[in-house]
Amino acid sequence: MSLSMESPRMTQRAAVIMAAGQGTRMKSPLPKVLHRVGGRAMLDLAIDAAQAAGCSRVVVVCGTHSPAVAEHVRKRLGDSAVAIQDPPLGTAHAVLAAREALADFEGDVLVSNADCPLLGPDDIVSLFEAGADLTVLGFEATEPGLYGRLIRDSTGRLDRIVEARDATDEEKAERVCYAGIMAAPATKLFPWLAQVGNANSKGEYYLTEVVAVANRAGANVAVRIADETAVMPADNQTDLAAAEAVFQQDRRAALMAQGVSMVAPQTVFLSWDTQVAGGAVLEPNIVFGPGVTVEGGATIRAFTHLEGCVVRAGAIVGPYARLRPGADIGEEAHIGNFVEVKKVKVGKGAKANHLAYLGDGSIGAKANIGAGTIFCNYDGFDKFETHVGEGAFVGSNSSLVAPVTVGAGAYTGSGSVITKDVAPDALALERGVQTEKPGWAARFRAMKLARKGAK
Is the dihedral of CA 183, 186, 188, 191 positive or negative? Predict the structure, then answer.
């Protein structure tokens, strides 16, 4: 007997991300959800997680008090992704603000928060795949405190969410708490939300009440459990620092598991998109800003700051180096102490070992940049490029005034200010004529000592 099975098409997924809170506990002019973890705004991390979990549409509920949040969403997702809650009347009311934006959507909807920066796509997917009408995300709290408790029946079905202030002693003993995250089909979620009342001391519509509404409708209400750290909110600066610490610890561990060497991992700070290949070595006290890729076999030495750059195999960067956006450090190249590189492609085996600023241009393979070299790339209005050819030797304390090209194999004399192109294999010198006055130093000292004695 043969069986023919047609694999079901995955139900479409959307996300409603709540970002309308005041965020006053951050005590910052920057809206709470735009504070960063791993160099990325918490709101963007929430959007990333939803999209990685298969949400093809994302709607962010914003408040009128933070136009910067709405503008941030528009720049990333467009106008249709913004829903405004006005006035703020509670969490259920906030989700209902997204109803119009999803009026034509009949798939499953995630309801999430913009201030849970560590929530991953796997936890979101677990809600969609639970097979229930409504699935609520919970976590086992180390200290349940004021968290709402998830009260389940003997079959594991969620019976109700009880706020800590209303819980009995028996209910307070429950350690599985509400994470503020849930998922349900749009065709059920929004009608249920419309039935939530506001008969409470604040006169607000609470999202937790949707569980009772769903149960009255005979729905299957399930619970999925996430790790406590995955759902930890960042409501204030202390929470934000705690989330950052967890993020860093997890990313360091992931890199070391892939073969990256770290002498003192607790001193290496990574960004959300940092890419370091196995075989790379990271010395202590390194800061990775966004947009950095380090290939295997490269070494980043201590006290180096990198952002928006590429370090290729076998290269050595630092100590005390700074790589800015657009820096591309070639294989086996050396960028040494107190060297700053910005928007320069450095060729294979090239060296700039000390005290240089290299901004806008290129350095050919095996070229040598002497100590104190400056690419003078800015005239106060515009930027210009400097190009140093393969095998060229730029003498110490040279200033290369862009736009200028030093040809392959050419030399510049130490202390020169190069304002014109240098031909390949030529020597360029730009210095005043050295003169000498015999005995001048002795006469000078004698004069100074005589004046001092007279006083």
Answer: positive
